[in-house]
């Protein structure tokens, strides 16, 4: 049953102008209208501040983007603004990859989209030789991130109405169980 549900989605990098526009509309719906983190630019689109350096992983369902997670490899990282001691980043093994601006259509949040996007980012990071993945994880989901292998880089930081924890995943220390889960998802993608 899960395998059948999974096959309704395609996970890939956004390649076409149409897919990139759909990403920007999804970001707008998510972070301007639904979870107001950004001011409304009045365009129906939200362009991420790292857009020029981002690679957008997308979940496609029925030919439309229904989820996205962006990654970039700096040199500036948004997670740095959540760390009191910025030298913490300098002590991490290089190269670094930051995963950020994760959004999923509201009616698809409790399914396979997060797992598919996370698996895609992990595969990309490993195959491209990154040593660590950085995130600013929601404090209320900290347990989930820690089960995935992420470790805090500092205390939670309040932004708007949510607390975010700066975290890093050392790709050389991913647990056997997480690798098994990732391999299982990889076979389904």
Mean pLDDT: 87
**Helical percentage:** 25-40%
Count, helices: 6
Low-confidence stretches: 1-6
Helix-strand category: alpha+beta
How widely separated are the two ends?
14 Å
Helix-strand topology string: HEHEEHEHEHEEEH
Strand content: 25-35%
Largest sheet: 8 strands, mixed
Shape: globular
Number of strands: 8
- Rounded radius of gyration (Å): 16 Å
Which features characterize this protein?
disordered N terminus, 189 residues, eight-stranded mixed sheet, alpha+beta
Brief digest:
Helix content is 32%, strand content 27%. The protein is built from six helices and eight strands.
Topology:
Layout: H1 2-6, E1 9-13, H2 17-34, E2 55-61, E3 64-72, H3 87-90, E4 96-104, H4 113-127, E5 132-138, H5 142-147, E6 151-152, E7 157-159, E8 162-170, H6 176-188
Parallel strand pairs: 4-5
Antiparallel strand pairs: 1-2, 2-3, 3-4, 5-8, 6-8, 7-8
Describe this structure in words.
With 189 residues, the chain is an alpha+beta fold. The chain has six helices and eight strands; from the N terminus they run H-E-H-E-E-H-E-H-E-H-E-E-E-H. Strands 1, 2, 3, 4, 5, 6, 7 and 8 form an eight-stranded mixed sheet that branches. Helix 4 links the parallel strand 4 and strand 5. The N terminus is likely disordered.
